[in-house]
Batch of 2 targets.
Target 1
Amino acid sequence: MRWTMITKEMIIADIISQHPETLPVFKQYNLDCYECQIADLETLGHGAGVHKIAIDQLLISLNNVLKQ
């Protein structure tokens, strides 16, 4: 199985739809992206910045879920 890395350039809605197992990570960081209409257009990096979330830590957490 090939592992795809999540990057800050990816669209939030695409991450959630392609990798629903990441949803608990978004919730852990208090990012209600699954309920937000902007998630269809917003990159992960931009969303993290708007919500003052450290993008590097968020990426580590999201990618750790995919590695499991």
Target 2
Amino acid sequence: MPQDYYPSGPFLSQLPDAGEFDVLREDFLIGFMKSTARAYKADLKDFREWCEAERVEATRPSGIELERFLDSVRERGYAAGTVARRLGAVRGFLRRVALRRVLPLEEG
């Protein structure tokens, strides 16, 4: 894969305490351009931190919980484009999570 794309492979083993969310996030980000992956990774970090603070399961939020997250992003003064990108990142991630529940990742 060209250098401009997000890496794949054994780098997951370098993540400290790589839990389910980390593995699913990295699986989602593989193949994106590095700049897109960097932005989505920050968006998903924000989402995960919000979920932890609100006691929401980050891989199974309800529609109402997603709206609450987006409200929190808006309340922090982010531009409409940033809010839209965060929504896109979270929705794409959750679609990947749903797919992985149907078609699990192969064990090493």
